[in-house]
Design goal:
heterodimer, A: mainly alpha, 0% strand, globular, B: alpha+beta, seven-stranded mixed β-sheet, 16 helices, 21% strand
Amino acid sequence: MRTYILKRLVQIVPTVLMITFVVFVMMRSVPGDPVVSVLGDAYTEEDAIKAREAYGLDKPIVVQYFIWLGKLVQGDWGASILTGRPVLQDVMIRLPVTLELIVLSMFVALVIAVPAAIIGALRQNTWADYTATTAAMIGVSIPEFFIGVLLLLAFSIGLGGLLPSSGWVYLPGTCPSIVCSASLWGNTMHVLMPAFALGVGRAAILTRLLRASMLEVIRTEYVTTARAKGLGERPVVFKHALKNALIPTVTVMGLQVGFLIGGAIVVETLFAMPGLGTFGIDAIVARDYQQVQGFALITALAFVVINLLVDLTYTFLDPRIRYA
Amino acid sequence: MNRRSLLIALVASLIFVSSAALAQTPKRGGTLRVSYGTEIAHLDFHTAPGYEMMWVAMNVGCGLVNITPDGKFVGDAAESWQSAPDGLSYTFKLRKNVLFHDGTAVDAAAVKFNIERVMDPATKSGMRPFYEPVHSIEVLDPQTVQIRLKQPYVFFLHMLAAYRTGLVLLSPASIQKFGVDDRKQGKPGAIIGCGPFKFVEWVKGSHLLMERFDKYFEPGLPYLDKVMIRVIKDPVTEMAAFKAGEIDFIASFSPDHVDTMRAQVPRAQILSGKETTPMLAAMKVTVPKDGKPMSPDRAPHPIFGDLRVRKAIGCYGIDRQEVVKIAFKGQATPWVGMAPPGTLESVNVNHLCPYDQAKARALLAEAGYGPSKPLTLELMTNTEKSVFNVIATVLKEQFARIGVTANIRLVDKVSWMNTTLGDGPWDMYVEDLLSLLTIDSNGYLSSAYVSTKSSAWSHPRHTDTKVDDYYARYARELDAAKRRALAKEFLEYMAENMYWNTISGSPFYMVAQPWMKGYTYNAEFEVHYDRVWLDR
């Protein structure tokens, strides 16, 4: 097991390097030059040339990449071209907000998906099944921003400001600045709508997948045997069927993290949350190369690490799986 | 009415008057919660772009003078000022009790330091061209500073008050102690102004906080304890936050949503005024002859280098009424002149460009275009505001009516800036550019900037030195009547040559909660919170 984990950790390095290299090249291939934003209306061609030299943007892309990489291995993630702020510092300030959003939206997804899938599978072709599958279909079809707007209309405007429309209240002890609100209650109120907006789409996908998986499992011989032995429906469903049906679902959950990060960009913008998503989109729009690299690096790391953890949970779900 | 009734009536009126007066007595304290739709670029006030930064700078920094909505100058750090009869010098007498937030005095040396910093090419301030007429700055005594000019500059006070941030005085001690990057990031101690509010912190993507400066030179001001600025980019969310009472003031509100706001929050104060921002369909007049961007060696643009084509398309080929009706629901003014209707000394020259398809077709035919040689151009627009795309679509349709095909190219803001500022390839674009307090504040259009390879904003890059001459004569003319006549002549000349093609004014809106009091609307030029108070 340890060897397997080590092997996977080593594999993370080329994966992340490849992702950061592709992003590095792509960003520099997109039209637009951060120097124009830096100089603004004091722009002259001479100053632009000097600025490009100062930021090393005049060098070949591969050289620029290796300079960035060289600094990275020393713990220097670079600084924003526009504001001079250290990228790592900004990423660390914003990461907890997005992590909380992603974890809670996945929780929302599971809370909806697991019961809906079980009911759908156990009561196949009944109104309960049709309701669950139709709801899942609708959930998959509606984009996050639309669900977000509907939630805003319902809970921030319609119900007289029951939930705050925007902004963020940090969890106690996580406030990254001199002045910011921090409370568990405030945090919960602020994260509910974004987590729901982001989680509904994932819930729909997981419901469909888990239902199909459950249908397959409950028809297997060991489930029939368990029932024949006189086991109650609850242990049959939760101990034998669900646990096995969860394996493909967990795989997809890991892959969904990528979609969640993408969805976080939209949801964070809509709810004006100071997370990594808004950080990433602002960086891309401003062509702030260093910040984009920081964003790419942290999301790539998050993606591969979460998928490693997902692989490791297989051993818990199915003890027959062994990694060597 | 007997004596008793009279007495009762008198007492009742007294109670009514005093309670009304009490209701209007500013209350001290509270936090003003402001929403911005766009992130602040950075906080080096002398170089940063964008209104969002300017509206912070105006409250953290103080200047020499400010300007009221009716165009009167009022002292800021300067208690009085005098201009020489020949217009070649301005002498400012500073108030004695003005302090920077670090406790150092705002004196003549500090004023000299700040102006020289803006004028220094190494600072790379976008305001530098407007200080071109400054010859020298003399410290006459600690409270008196004299600015000597090379030639008269009638709009010198306008420029100091409200061209972009106006002159923002920062503590020389802090500027010397901290670097540009420290100011850009908003490091504690790096941004020391002399305005009513001290800068506390800026967490990019989250908030910017200012708090009351207790030693502000205006006794009793500001009323507010704090000003908290948050960025809410989505207008629907911004509206929801406003309706829920989570924010008190939207500093720039999307015109598309004004009607919805009126319907949703009838008590909201919707602030607007005369249009000072031009909505443009700019045409490129020249291109670099040697193919090198920003080259002073110019050749006519393949399409719009020909004045007949510029006039056919930009002048007679645009139905400005229709654009305004569709894009602004009629809430803007169709306009041809370079300076919009709200700009000082602006003149209506709409008669020069009536919508006339026949004339447009005739001019195009004269220039060699027609069914056998159809004209196709690229119409660039960007994603910053949805209204740009609506206008581009309307223009495409209008151009089709005169036989011209416009292919719309939608780019993001940075790509648009790259293409236009960097003298890249483009034919026509739709954008609203900077708000113009005076005609002079559009001085970037001078061809002088093309010949000196600067001129970021002279996008059309015409090389007509007569325009420079107009700018110079206009800004130097001390006689108001002569200057107004010159303004008319100048605006007509610009319209006749289509160097700057305005379609309409671009309306600007701010929205305040009913409990926000004491704010004086002065478009984008002056956004001050020192007299604002909250009646909650």
